[in-house]
Design a protein that fits this description.
Elements (H helix, E strand, L loop, with lengths): L4 H11 L4 H20 L4 H13 L4 H8 L4 H18 L4 H11 L11 H17 L4 H10 L4 H10 L6
């Protein structure tokens, strides 16, 4: 492939240097997004966009903390797209990929109006990780399962990770 995903993974590890929690987070989201996308049969271009977006989805956190003193999702959505654009442009990613990734970064905490499989899967992958990392209570996990998860693979993974609440 002309633009191997490892390039953006390495760039994001450097971007988040000294912040192992965020590095671990995006690597887990990437792994789940990749798995869901492959099992759901995404075409190669959409799969590449999904994987790139999963790696950079939280790229706006550092700027949000600097500007607003908060990593709130809406601030990430506001400030993340420009950061993703700069990083992916420097890496030579195609403009069509960058534009879609910027959209996904700018909406990954918005759960209404999901407009594509890449968007849906990114949200599901982020939820699979956040339900664990944020120690979400069982009732909230069940609500997420019922309202967020739409793909067969994402629903199965949620049930397998959290069988007591995602049934």
């Amino acid at each position: 492939m002309e633009h191997p995903i490892e390039t953006v993974i390495s760039a994001m590890i450097a971007y988040d240097a000294g912040d192992p929690m965020r590095i671990h987070h995006f690597l887990k989201v990437y792994a789940f997004a990749r798995l869901i996308g492959l099992e759901e049969g995404l075409d190669p271009d959409t799969q590449f966009i999904l994987e790139t977006a999963a790696v950079v989805h939280d790229i706006g956190i550092h700027r949000a903390e600097a500007v607003y003193g908060s990593s709130h999702g809406k601030y990430q959505e506001e400030l993340g797209p420009a950061e993703a654009d700069a990083l992916l442009s420097r890496l030579g990613w195609p403009r069509t990929v960058i534009d879609r990734v910027m959209f996904l970064v700018g909406h990954h905490h918005t759960y209404a109006g999901i407009d594509g499989a890449d968007y849906q899967i990114l949200v599901e992958a982020d939820f699979l990780v956040n339900l664990y990392e944020d120690d979400v209570p069982p009732a909230a996990r069940k609500h997420a399962y019922e309202t967020i998860f739409k793909t067969e693979t994402g629903r199965r993974l949620c049930r397998e990770l959290y069988p007591a609440v995602c049934e």
